[in-house]
Amino acid sequence: MADIQQELDKIDPSIPFRATTSHVHYTWAKTFSCKPELYLQPRTIEEIRKIVNLARRCRRRVVVVGCGHSPSILTCTSSWMVNLDHYNAVLKVDKRKKTILAEGGIRLRQLNDEANKVGLTIPNLGSIDDQSIAGAIATATHGSSMKHGLLSEHVKSLRIMLSNGQAVRCSPEQNQELFRAALVSLGALGIITEVEYQMVDSCNIEWTQTLKPLGTILDTWDTTLWTSKEFTRVWWMPYMKRAIVWSADRTSKPLRPPQENFYGGSVGYHIYHNLLWLSNHMPFILPLVEWFVFGMQYGFSTGMTTSAVEPLRNGLLMNCLYSQFVNEWALPLSKGPEAITRLSAWINREPGAGGIPFSNKGLYVHCPIEVRVSDGSTSHPRPYLDNTCADGPTLYLNATLYRAYLQDPPCKDRYYEAFEWLMREMGAKPHYAKNWQFTPSSYVEQTFGNDLKQWIKVRNEADPDGMFLGEWHKQAFGLGDSKSFPLAERQISLDKGRPGNCLFWRGVLSEENASARGGSARVCGSANIGKSISAKKLASPTASSSGESFDMMHEAETEKSTMFNGSEYDDEDHGDLTDR
Ligand SMILES: Cc1cc2nc3c(=O)[nH]c(=O)nc-3n(C[C@H](O)[C@H](O)[C@H](O)COP(=O)(O)OP(=O)(O)OC[C@H]3O[C@@H](n4cnc5c(N)ncnc54)[C@H](O)[C@@H]3O)c2cc1C
């Protein structure tokens, strides 16, 4: 901590450094937690730059977190955690182009609130709108529509602060390589400070949901299932071999709320939660639970239909219920029937078990398995890390496992090992914001091929020391070896924590690892954090000194870099978009 205060004293004291030392971070699902050395909530671009410059001088890793909805260790750090909840303003609305320029911390819901005031709305959403815009695009978040690709598809331009403190604007026309890398960046490129997003006119959607036999789903797969409406998603119930098909189109009809069902609200919520908890001890009840819970909610016989007319921004959302593990993969839509048939055979212990070479003895899984689609094949330019198919529509299969009262279900490892094996055999790519765990980085490297290499090239130029790299990037992409990236953070422990089966993550920087070998390690997140420097002092630096910082030269060099054209002051090119 003394090193931070020393460097802080050298930087312009008029720019606040809003840091706290007692923050404990949890993922939304309470799957992982960590205690960052500093938790920072900047309010201006100057404050963000100060954090980055200081991190570089103090040799710290920086992790940006949105609302922590990614369920893996992606956002875990023992170093510095930056959150842009107070850097979330709308900067410009262009009614003619139907675009909104907003600061990177804005949540999708807030963006929609602002858009609705001028008759606009976000064109496509996943199941929720809690995410920050930057966090949602960073992990390739998607909805379910053949008319849309990833949420990144609607980004017109963005601004990202790189590890040298330079905030660079990029778009399809300007710094295109950086733009393609930043559209899905996994927090490893820099801090996205602004996003210009394409909206559409606000509208209502009329949705219907119908219970159908799985056979009908597979029979209509290549004809009407995915194309008859703009939005379609399917919840597959593996034991009943049925599925609920939810589909929606835009409409000019007036709002019509869905029919109330006494079971649909808190009664059903608590009954299902408790049955899931019971099934952790008696897994064999799960087929019965599936029949009962989904029968009560959606009807016991096929053909039952409900419908409603809601605003697009609400109609697409759903209640995701409880803490959960999610394991979602993207594969060519045409391979869907084979994937579902084989997985169904394995789950139901049918002869041959779908050719999946893992034991299914005594194994019972949760439902529904989410089946969704997107089509990003016409998006241009595509993110380097776009996991959808480049040459046609994409299917997403999501094996959800609920964690009733935050307890992990007993089937998890065996189910996920088999599921991931099947997905790999079918050439699928994992969704980054999920919990895949049995797939080596070599598979990911091989399936992303040249695109991953391009992304790594841009990333390494933008962040040569690995200030934005962590254990997740190493496990997923094999990226961030300690020698090349002194600031990359490595996992040193993953311990049982609280609440429930939440795991507590601890990391150490590569550089510290090296000095530990030399005998003087500083482990971030240690119990002494905050003792040598008071939060008050951090929040309002007072002194400045002429002491020389070792990274001044580094900074001077990088800020002159012409690697990415333009700088933070290049808004003249976009005069109609920024009115600051
Ligand atoms: C209940 C629930 C429902 C979901 N539904 C869907 C769905 O329907 N479809 C789908 O595809 N996904 C879905 N997700 C996943 C979710 O969209 C992603 O996890 C998303 O990344 C969460 O956004 P966040 O703001 O919480 O980001 P975080 O989880 O906090 O961060 C995600 C990544 O973004 C980076 N990041 C955040 N802010 C910035 C920034 N300003 N600059 C640079 N990098 C940044 C982080 O470093 C991290 O790498 C769901 C998740 C939950 C919990």
Which key features would you list for this structure?
alpha+beta, Vanillyl-alcohol Oxidase, Chain A, domain 3, five-stranded antiparallel sheet, 16 helices, 21% strand, globular, disordered C terminus, binds flavin-adenine dinucleotide
How does this structure look, described?
The chain is built from 16 helices and 25 strands. With 580 residues, the protein is of the alpha+beta class. It has a domain at 205-438: 3-Layer(aba) Sandwich (Vanillyl-alcohol Oxidase, Chain A, domain 3). Strands 17-14-16-15-20-21-19-23 form an eight-stranded antiparallel β-sheet. Strands 7-8-12-10-11 form a five-stranded antiparallel β-sheet. Strands 1-4-6-5 form a four-stranded mixed β-sheet. Strand 15 and strand 16 (242-251) form a beta hairpin. Bound molecules: flavin-adenine dinucleotide. Residues 28, 63-70, 74-75, 84, 104, 126-128, 131-132, 134-136, 138-139, 141-142, 185-187, 191-192, 320, 433 line the site of flavin-adenine dinucleotide (FAD). The site of flavin-adenine dinucleotide has 32 residues, from strand 5, helix 4 and strand 12.
How many distinct beta strands? 25
CATH top level of the domain at 205-438 is Alpha Beta
Radius of gyration: 24 Å
How far apart are the first and last residues' alpha carbons, in Å? 36 Å
In terms of DSSP E residues, the strand content is 15-25%
Bound molecules: flavin-adenine dinucleotide
What is the CATH H-level superfamily of the domain at 205-438? FAD-linked oxidases, C-terminal domain
Overall residue-averaged pLDDT value: 89
Low-confidence residue ranges: 519-562, 567-580
Shape field: globular
Number of contiguous helices = 16
